[in-house]
Amino acid sequence: MNRCNWLRRGGAELKSVCQCGDVSAHEICTLASARIVHKNSPQESSEVRSLFYVTLTAVALTVLFWLPLWEGGGLIGGDTYSYFFPQKTFLADSIASGELAAWNNRTGFGYPAIAESQTGVLYPPNQVFYRIFEANGAYVANQILHYVLAFIFTWLYARSIGLRALAAVLVALVYTYGWFPPRMCLEWAIIGGTWLPASLWAAESFLQSRRWLWLFVLSLTLALSMLAGHFNLAFITQLVLLAYIPLRLWFTAASLPEETRALRNRCATGLLTAMVLGFLLSAIQLAPTWELRGRSQRSASANTGYGHLPAWYWSQVVMPWKWYRADVDLDRVLNENLPPGSAMTNKVEAHLYFGLAPLIVVLAGIVFLRRKLFSRRIIFWIGLGIAALLYTPGWLLPVTQYLPGFSFFMGPGRYGIVVTLAFALLAGTALDAISQRMNLLGRWLLVAVVFAATTADLWYVSRAVTNVVMLSDAPLRHVDESPVAQKLAEFTGPTRLYAPGANLTNILGTASYPIYLGLGPAEYFDESLSLPAPFPLDAPPPADQLAAVQKAGVTHVLSGQSLESLGWPMRLLWYGVDPFLHRAWARSPNDPLFLYELSETRGRAYWESPSAEATVEIETYRPGHIVIRAASEDGGVLVLTDLEYPGWQVDIDGKPAAATTAAGLYRGVDVPPGTHTVTWNYHPVSLYWGAAITVVTLLLWAIVGHLRYWHPGRFNYFEKQGETP
Fold first, then answer.
1. 8-state DSSP, 254
2. Where are the alpha helices (H) located in 469-541, listed in sequence order?
3. Counting C-beta atoms within 10 Å of the first and last residue's C-beta, which end of the chain has fewer, N or C?
4. 47 domain residue, yes or no
5. Is the dihedral of CA 566, 569, 572, 576 positive or negative?
């Protein structure tokens, strides 16, 4: 193709066209005028204005639904203080100290935080928010941001497939506030769910324009969904795309441009390649997680049916008044009516509701529009929604448990996110078609009534079906006032607290036991290792647990009652009201807490067979770097009561040494006689390999972008022969 031909018609043409001797000044002016007119077309200006108003609507809805959070409050309940805040405060502390939060040394005996993934160490918004705000503010701001983004991305996708702006708003409302608010206790729900409509928007935009930029956006959205920290919704997003791409190109292709239809195979190849590159972009997260997966409790077995949606509970869609009442204990009802041997579930995982007004709109569309409502595109989404709905009860688990990916995740009820999006699109399509048969006043009135009714309905349900409460005074804001934290800080050396309430006391900056991890090292779930057993807040720990507690290096014990009668070798350090812990546990000020220091414990480091003069002193203790000064006349195995895990390297006096596993889970190293400096460093090879793959993939995209910008005529894979890019 003659270079001047495509320069006259292309995109970066104006700065290059003057170099072509056979292009007239008239042609240059014509080209420039066309570009300016295109950029400022009324249609584009209208779309920008619509996007601006949609953004305002998205923000306003977060104020309506989460006003106490906007006012500086916080969340409590569900997994917030037992799971997410212990991770997020560790992330915030690591960022403040200038370290990568690769290893969490607070939960139990430690675990690879970057591999467990729900900390979201590498997720860009986390890196921004936890630098700007304190932990509670960052956690809240992150969720609010993703409610706004989910609303906008859903609207953009609905617009890209032809829905009018007001109908697309209903789609965004039903998707964003139908499925996510009851799951507010699960941070990963809204964060992961944001990238499903974003990925669909990127894929659809590519099919409409065949621009390489949208392939990069698709890769980026998929990578972000995996960096976000919970792979279940990312996996569901990928499944939806794998169904969407071929069916859009071959089943619903009539609405695509002729050029796209003529290049179906190439477009499909481009989209699938972009998906693969999305995996490679997130390799820095996936590689460590894959390593942990092979060493976790899920490598052997997992109850994948947990969190299913019983088929009889589908009735909540049409009869919310039967279930969403204060006098109905949904968790009890859901599990009482399960067949014998069925996996447990709960009201959050089993929630599926779209609002009654959208349901009425859909029924009206079916009655009055009939076949006109059911375009091939809507038939596709109905089919996909039905398939996802049939998966939610767990009926297909006996088959899918043998398929790649499915066996790794619990919660078949989470496929309800696809059902919700499908129904939202059906409701938006019905509203669009019905409203176009009305005059302008009737159209606006209908949309206003449906939107207001749906908002009120979903607002009520967000309060009726939830595991969290919004507090104006977040407990997390009182950590600095904690006397327990102050007493632990006075201890010489690292502390490990044996306390009720898994993980919560990690927030105080101490290691604690017992633990709660969604994906954790298998050692924590191995009963043969005799780890300390959990105990209730207002009951003493089991008396026979003393040996296990001392062996685990526990230095302190926290309880809701006096433990003087327990007979353990310990002394009372403090008792009273802790401003943080009492709020987090919703404990009455009349019920004090008791903190004890345990003696005759191994502590964080000890000699396996100590001589009379053997000593151990921990000089430096950071998450990924530990320095121990050890002295012994006879030498022997020096044990660090932290988890042995790939990536931990040890040297003695600066020379590499061979690490061993002590007592089935701790780190050990054979130290010669004398006084030595033993240093442990965490250098996870899986992280480095993943980082290398991510960087190479970014460079690949940068090269493609460079070539497309400077040499567009040479990258015309998605153009018909003889067509300009």
1. G
2. 483-489
3. N
4. yes
5. negative
Any domain includes 266 = yes
3-state secondary structure of 668: strand
Q: Among residues 598, 622, 644, which one ends one of the domains?
A: 598
658 shares its domain with 569: no
pLDDT higher than threshold 50 for residue 12: no
Helices (DSSP H) in 341-482: which residue ranges?
356-369, 376-391, 397-400, 416-435, 440-464
More confident residue, 36 or 449: 449
CA distance 9 to 35: 10
Helix 231-250 and helix 195-209, axial crossing angle in degrees, nearest 10? 30
Query: Are residue 32 and residue 149 in the same domain, yes or no?
Result: no
User: 725 in a domain, yes or no?
Assistant: no
Closest CA to 207 of 256, 254, 246: 256
Among candidates 319, 320, 310, 312, which has minimal Cα distance to 462? Answer: 320
Grade residue 230 by pLDDT with cuts at 50, 70 and 90: confident
Domain limits at 656?
605-683
CA distance 451 to 73: 27
Quick: pLDDT tens for 457-492: 999 999 999 999 999 999 999 999 999 999 999 999
Query: Cα-flanking dihedrals φ and ψ of residue 330, to 5°?
Result: -60, -40
Whether residue 5 has pLDDT greater than 60? no
Give residue 16's Cα distance to chain centre.
45
Q: Using alpha carbons, select from 142, 150, 98 the residue that is nearest to residue 119.
A: 142
Task: State yes or no: pLDDT of 503 exceeds 80.
Answer: yes
* Residue 37: pLDDT over 90: no
User: Residue 293 to residues 148, 296, 624: CA-CA distances in angstroms?
Assistant: 32, 5, 21
Is the same domain home to 452 and 584? no
Quick check: 465 and 182 in contact, CB under 8 A? Answer: yes
Among residues 338, 279, 344, which one has the least CA distance to residue 313? 338
Q: What is the length of the chain?
A: 725
**Using an 8 Å Cβ cutoff, are 553 and 494 in contact?**
no
Convert 399-417 into a string of H (helix), E (strand) and C (coil).
HHCCCCCHHHCCCHHHHHH
The answer to whether residue 65 is domain-embedded is yes
Whole-number Å distance between alpha carbons of 393 and 419: 13
pLDDT value, residue 175: 99
